[in-house]
Amino acid sequence: MNINSMYRLIHNKYYFVLLSSTFSALITELILFHKYVFYSVGDNAFPLSMSFFYNYQPFFTNVNGGSIGNNIILIIYGFFYFPFFNKYGEMVSFLVTTFIGNSALSLLIYKNIQRYNINISIFSFIATIGAEIFLNSGLNLYYELLLLPSTFIPIHAIFPWIIYFIDSIIMDNDNLIVKFLEILAASLLLIIFIGSVLTLVVTTYVIIGIFFIGLLFSSNLRVKRKLILLVVSVIILVSLNIISLLPSYYGAVSYFSSHVGEAYYVNALKFYMQSFNGSIFNVLTLTYLPSNTISLIPYYYIFISGLFVTLLVLPAISQDRNIPKIYYISLMTFLLLSAWLAAPYLFPSYIKLYSSIPYLWSLDIPWLSFTYLIFVSLSIALGNGLISIKNKLLRIISVVLLLLILFAQTYPYYNGQVLTNSATHTSYAWDPPNYLWEVSNIINDGPYKNPRILVFPTSGVYVAYNFSSNNTYVGAGFWQTLFNGNVYASYFPYNCYSLEWFITIYPSFNLSSYQPFLNAARLLGINYIVITKNFIPKYYFTTNYINKVEIKKLTSTLPSSSIIYNNSQILVYNFSSETIAVIPKYIIFVNISKPLWINVSEFHILLSALNLSFVNYSSAALVSSSYEKEITESLQNYTILYSSSDITVIKLNNVPRLEVENENPSVIIIKIAKDDYNSLIPVLIRENYQSGINEYISSYNKVIPAYSNESFIIMSNSSTIIISYNGKNVSQYMYLIYFYLLIIIAFILILMKNNVFKYCFITRFFDANDLQRRSR
């Protein structure tokens, strides 16, 4: 294709958007994955495969239980990810999400080219691609990757479309019906994909407000039309929020203040400030030092930032003043965001506001809230500003500066070695060894639909597994995205009363037998035990208490016949065939009320309760003594096997058979062969107990949480118990309605924007010019 053909091609809107979005997405993909690399540090890892989405159940917000929440968002967004790509899923997912977001940015730039009569050329095409690469490969792209497996996933692809709709609502000369539909679409996008994420609520709504108000005041619309758009937008957004999200907002305010407290937020923000070594410059530029040859350049960041500032203001200082207004709005947004981000540094007393004003709590780790939004603002300003430059010399200068800045941003990732913002933890690019994929396939293709996996050794701080040549940290997020199932004890358990915590600290007591450890695993319903031999001991809170001796103790306890994978680095055992529900023959009541790691006596009580030779722990339940009277009064035929001041064990006689049908994360059907068994039957469910869980259960008399809320007991006299996590919560219905409504609106907008069908009467009646003439 010659230059002239390319020139004609990019004049077409659809080719311009398609080509620029595709090229920028592919270039970004090449930079990140040219060696098929994987970044992991801290608590997260971006998706390895579709296992990540399988693990996000519709009821629980994480694989270990978490809080009751609606994850329909993740299920919907999971359609963008292709499960048949297996270990290459993260490459495909990043490419798809990047392309979706870039398309909105390309379309926004093209519309402003047309709107301001800017000449379309190869330069504008390059400027668009450069702005999109800048957006997706900024200096904090590393954090963006880490956000992918969390509830932040949609912002990468969706937020640019919200800005696009805002621009269209205000700047396009469409009729009121089109504007109404665009307002509705933008509001639905904001609520479905962003509004429910606490950490993003404050910043995203402020940014949306800045763009909307800024464009509204700078537009040429009549005052009456501006007021109509403002009022309609506020009414729609507030109404949709009240219907679906307002209760959760109020709930979050009371929950975080009562459960976490102001000390957490103040300390978190102080830690964040220290991580940047008190440098306002690093905060404002969102930079950290890359570990490569570029960092050897004296005053590297001052130099690069100077180039960037020059590039950013070139359109404003050029002789041409026909600059899209969204350029100035984006620039103002960037400055306001930067000032907001730097406020704690400039005014230390500002930190106190975080603990006293609702939803400022969500900014306790500011780089989560600000990074992406700052880069969106900068990218919109770059793309829409550079295309307006007419002077050939300035165009050449801007291209050179743009290439230099992109090189400085992308080289650390291309080189595969960067540092985090604290400049203490190195993130290396690496490729997971093949045997990990083999283990993943064995477990994911096994007989269990949602297997439970115990990863050993565990740690009270973090587990670092040396799967790369650079001792790269691989912890919580890695295991949860590698396996299709619940991964236990792969990182710091927050509940220090739990069986997971017991498993974590057990090796530190240097006990001779691992039988209590395995009994705890049976209570948790563990199906597979994964033992890694290549951990990094320096991450443990007690120096080197996990060693080869402890690993050998555990492996000697487990039967060799249950090994399903074994090499020099990893051992995998098919530990048990436990199911999600069981009628316990044994109920163990324990008198424990303090965290195990604070009170050693509490630990030994639990140790004794897990080391009873007459108990089959596969069919046992562990319950707090506070529920002993409530349970025993509901039972008729049981025997007390053991009783002391701290432990009581009862055995149920003539326990009926139980079958679990359609076992999946959403619906559990439990059938009980009662025969002549007429008293209440305790059914142990190996799912985390949550307040309000009763509404999801049919046919029960009472629901009792087990020890540490890691499971719960349903007391029922019915022959069938159904636990359905779908269709019970009103917000779930609302999200589904919103999602389908969004699809319908998008389809109608495409038809109306392209004049596929005629709506002459309505168009004529609501035409903007007609309305303006009538208002005179």
Number of domains: 3
Beta strands, count: 22
What is the distance, rounded to the nearest whole angstrom, between the alpha carbons of the first and last residues? 53 Å
How many helices in DSSP terms? 29
Major β-sheet profile: 5 strands, mixed
What ranges have pLDDT less than 50 throughout 5 or more consecutive residues? 56-70, 139-152, 288-292, 420-424, 759-763
Compute the CA-based radius of gyration.
29 Å
Mean pLDDT: 78
Summarize the model shown:
The chain has 776 residues and is an alpha+beta fold. The chain is 50% helix and 12% strand. Residues 56-70, 139-152, 288-292, 420-424 and 759-763 have low confidence and may be disordered.
